[in-house]
């Protein structure tokens, strides 16, 4: 089987390394939009900008041509879009314009499209209608608790692929379910994608709480009530709330909200320390999806009539309307209610 990954950030590179360790030399291809990055990786065997401590497997093919990266794939192969949410629509559109036969297309990004509040699969469906010319591609999302650094080092990890196509799930398992990586399958795209989007916002909240030294009780409260928000929105959006109890919901929430490798948690810690958001993001060197996603989730929740107070407060803090201290005060000052 051949696999192409589009996007050579930390996650695309880590997943390319995982697949390349177990498939045949040359079967896995990693494409970056920056020629100098690919040349650097070819020269040093390391992705210096995004995963500087990890030596890439020798069999991993590094590609500068978008066309070649797509054209090498047959109908039984796998295309992974490993850009952030902000790159999903343009990348998938470019793929669909080039595709001459059905492809198996999976994305790794976690978020919503800010201008439309669409979930990743809805963005892909929109682009499919515009660019697919009658070719029926298969689509899916791959998500779950997975710091790139650990996966790149071959440490144990469990993920979930969500798709309406069992064949696509089998292909994703064939590509990645090896060694220390387990891939579970689900058909709940809405539940899986919303879990991945919301946990990033909640990780910023947990980082703020920890940065303000609010204590372990506060952290448990944020995670538990945040999970309740996630389940309410998933249900209202047509997903299954029980998906939130799995890897892509509570699993990824625990990881991201408590693990200091998380970029989103680090944004929260830095906001609590009083740093301005542009300075925090400038210093991160990576995407923190929760920053753009907080308002999008809030807008989607408002449209579906779902109450999400923690998410709403994060929207206010990230847009500069409230300080972290003021947000905590507002949350703690809410009226008593039933635990639902
Ligand atoms: N890192 C992790 O541990 C995990 C990340 N994810 C998710 O995966 C997605 C990617 O994250 P991650 O790899 O960490 O992000 P990084 O910030 O590490 O890297 C982003 C990469 O995407 C590239 N990129 C951005 N926009 C485009 C575009 N329009 N076209 C092509 N390439 C583009 C960047 O290229 P350039 O260098 O040229 O800017 C860079 O290579 C995010 O949605 C994240 O939430 C999911 C699970 C784990
Ligand atoms: O999604 C992730 C782990 O599953 C990575 O989280 P961060 O983007 O917060 O680093």
From TrEMBL:
One matching Pfam family: NAD_Gly3P_dh_N
* GO cellular component term, pick one: cytosol
Annotated Gene3D superfamilies: N-(1-d-carboxylethyl)-l-norvaline Dehydrogenase, domain 2, NAD(P)-binding Rossmann-like Domain
Annotated residues for binding of NAD(+): 7-12, 148, 263
Q: Where does NADPH bind?
A: 10-11, 33-34, 50, 110, 148, 263, 287, 289
InterPro entries according to UniProt: 6-PGluconate_DH-like_C_sf, 6PGD_dom2, G3P_DH_NAD-dep, G3P_DH_NAD-dep_C, G3P_DH_NAD-dep_N, NAD(P)-bd_dom_sf
Q: Which residues bind substrate?
A: 110, 263-264
Quote the pathway field.
Membrane lipid metabolism; glycerophospholipid metabolism
* PROSITE patterns reported for this sequence: NAD_G3PDH (PS00957)
Q: Which UniProt keywords apply?
A: Cytoplasm, Lipid biosynthesis, Lipid metabolism, NAD, NADP, Nucleotide-binding, Oxidoreductase, Phospholipid biosynthesis, Phospholipid metabolism
Q: Where is the Glycerol-3-phosphate dehydrogenase NAD-dependent N-terminal domain?
A: 2-168
Q: Does the keyword Oxidoreductase apply?
A: yes
GO biological processes: carbohydrate metabolic process; glycerol-3-phosphate biosynthetic process; glycerol-3-phosphate catabolic process; glycerophospholipid metabolic process; phospholipid biosynthetic process
Which residues of this UniProt protein bind sn-glycerol 3-phosphate? 110, 144, 146, 199, 252, 262-264
Name the job this protein performs: Catalyzes the reduction of the glycolytic intermediate dihydroxyacetone phosphate (DHAP) to sn-glycerol 3-phosphate (G3P), the key precursor for phospholipid synthesis.
This one is known as Glycerol-3-phosphate dehydrogenase [NAD(P)+]
Native source organism of the sequence? Polynucleobacter duraquae
């Amino acid at each position: 089987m051949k696999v192409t990954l589009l996007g050579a950030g930390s996650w695309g590179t880590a997943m390319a390394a995982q697949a390349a360790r177990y498939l045949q030399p040359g079967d896995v291809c990693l494409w970056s939009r920056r020629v100098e990055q690919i040349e650097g990786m070819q020269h040093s065997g390391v992705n210096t900008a995004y995963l500087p401590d990890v030596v890439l497997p020798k069999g991993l093919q590094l590609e500068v041509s978008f066309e070649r990266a797509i054209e090498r794939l047959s109908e039984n192969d796998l295309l992974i879009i490993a850009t952030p949410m902000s790159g999903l629509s343009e990348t998938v559109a470019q793929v669909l314009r080039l595709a001459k036969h059905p492809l198996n297309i999976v994305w790794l990004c976690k978020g919503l499209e800010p201008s439309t509040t669409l979930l990743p699969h809805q963005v892909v469906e929109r682009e499919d209608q515009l660019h697919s010319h009658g070719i029926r591609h298969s689509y899916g999302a791959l998500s779950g608790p997975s710091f790139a650094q650990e996966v790149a080092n071959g440490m144990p990890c469990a993920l979930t692929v969500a798709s309406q196509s069992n064949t696509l799930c089998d292909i994703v398992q064939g590509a990645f379910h090896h060694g220390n990586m387990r891939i579970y399958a689900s058909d709940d795209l809405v539940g899986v994608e919303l879990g991945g989007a919301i946990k990033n916002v909640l990780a910023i909240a947990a980082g703020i709480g920890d940065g303000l030294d609010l204590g372990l009780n506060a952290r448990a409260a944020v995670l538990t009530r945040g999970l309740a928000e996630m389940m309410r929105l998933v249900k209202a959006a047509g997903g299954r709330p029980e998906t939130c109890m799995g890897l892509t919901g509570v699993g990824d929430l625990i990881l991201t909200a408590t693990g200091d490798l998380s970029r989103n948690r680090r944004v929260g810690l830095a906001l609590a320390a009083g740093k301005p958001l542009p300075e925090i993001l400038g210093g991160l060197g990576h995407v923190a999806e929760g920053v753009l996603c907080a308002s999008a989730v809030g807008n989607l929740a408002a449209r579906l009539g779902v109450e999400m107070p923690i998410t709403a407060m994060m929207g206010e803090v990230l847009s500069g309307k409230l300080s972290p201290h003021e947000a905590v005060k507002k949350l703690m000052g809410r009226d008593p209610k039933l635990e639902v």
